[in-house]
Write a structure and sequence with these properties.
Hypothetical protein af1432, alpha+beta, about 10% strand, binds zinc ion
Length: about 270
């Protein structure tokens, strides 16, 4: 048997995506001179490194072709099925925005609802898409600062908080995702971009140490991560007056349990 890594199907996907993004419309990355095709190719590389299957890699390379093709050269689901099969079409459609007429807020809310119903393969494509897009954003931010956010239709806070929610939804859904660590590492970098502005605006819940339980339910007010102090794996007990629990995704302090004040007897 012959095992090919760089298969004919992958080469055809690269050609197809290049036509859509480059040949037909010379599309560039939003507000930049870098050709758009670098993005789907990066997604393909990430999925290859994550040892995804051929169809998942192909779907990653094609993931923006329906959404971004111009009206006169529209890529349709049927065109993808004909060339790459039904499974690839299903994956591409799962990460394609359905209702582009809705407001930014509604579209993003829709996207989060969708992730909660994703298959593992859709989660893989989505993970690679998020990693490619937001690692690029972090790199741009390190070079250009807040100016980086001027090219988007939403504010810096909206973008960062939404992406933390997306990452939280992905990792909550599938803990064995091979891109899990990369996503949590990215969340950490995104959190730091907003650390001086909005990450501190929700105060932690303060309770008595007697009410603290390792299996009590807690929820992060920023990224909506839900779990228990135990599952957050982020309990800090160094202090002698309090212990605190932080969100595993955005490191937000969610809960502070204070020890009873011990009055000295030196009266
Ligand atoms: Zn969080």
């Amino acid at each position: 048997m012959i095992f090919s890594i760089y298969t004919d199907k992958i080469r055809r996907a690269i050609k197809f995506a290049s036509k859509t993004h480059n040949q037909y419309q010379q599309q560039t990355r939003k507000g930049k001179v870098i050709p758009y095709i670098t993005h789907p190719l990066t997604v393909g590389i990430i999925l290859s490194l994550a040892k995804a299957s051929e169809d998942v890699i192909v779907a990653g390379i094609l993931h923006d072709t329906i959404e971004d093709s111009p009206k006169d050269k529209k890529t349709t689901p049927d065109m993808i099925t004909e060339r790459f099969g039904k499974d690839v079409t299903r994956l591409v459609l799962s990460v394609t925005e359905q209702n582009r007429d809705l407001s930014w807020e509604e579209r993003k809310k829709d996207a989060l609802t969708h992730i909660k119903k994703f298959s593992n393969n859709s989660l893989l494509v989505k993970s690679a898409d998020v990693l490619a897009n937001y690692s690029e954003l972090v790199d741009d931010y390190n070079r250009y600062g807040d100016e980086t956010f001027n090219r988007f239709n939403a504010s810096k806070e909206e973008i960062i908080v939404h992406q933390l929610k997306v990452i939280s939804a992905i990792v909550t859904r599938w803990a064995d995702n091979p891109l899990y660590r990369d996503l949590v590492f990215l969340a950490d970098k995104l959190r730091m971009l907003g650390s001086s502005e909005f990450m501190d605006k929700y105060p932690a819940k303060i309770i008595d140490i007697g009410d603290f339980k390792r299996d009590m339910k807690i929820k992060c007010p920023i990224c909506d991560w839900e779990g228990t102090p135990e599952s957050s794996d982020n309990i800090n007990t160094d202090s002698s007056v309090a212990l605190d629990v932080r969100c595993p995704i955005c490191d937000k302090m969610i809960l502070v349990a204070e020890y009873e004040i011990v009055t000295s007897d030196s009266k």
